[in-house]
Specification:
Layout (H helix, E strand, L loop, with lengths): L2 E3 L2 E4 L4 E4 L4 E4 L12 E2 L5 H6 L2 H13 L4 H6 L2 H8 L14
Length: 101
């Protein structure tokens, strides 16, 4: 795990820094700088972002959900995220690769 600071981790699979205490993602720009002003709460990231997480990166994000007393796997198993995506057309539909986690 590459740390930027004690509570900031690089999620290579989705090209961002993840604040493991606050649940905020920060994009890594093409010049490898971090857009600290462009943070997005992990709870409002789109479905495509979750699908793009590598198993290693998913484990890091899953720990945040667990620490917040949320069960991301149950949410996925109950099609919560898929339903949310379908109900919110700005998000991407489908979860083709969740069973790999």
């Amino acid at each position: 795990m590459n740390l930027v600071t004690e509570d900031k981790v690089v999620l290579k699979s989705v090209g961002c820094i993840f604040d493991t205490k606050q649940g905020i993602t920060y994009p890594i720009m093409t010049d490898d700088t971090i857009d600290w002003d462009g943070g997005v709460d992990v709870m409002v990231t789109d479905c495509e972002w979750f699908r793009a997480l590598s198993p290693k990166d998913f484990t890091i994000v899953e720990k945040y959900f667990t620490d917040e007393e949320l069960d991301i796997r149950a949410m996925m198993d109950n099609n919560y995220l898929e339903t949310y995506c379908e109900e919110n057309p700005d998000f991407v539909d489908g979860f083709d690769n969740w069973d790999t986690f």
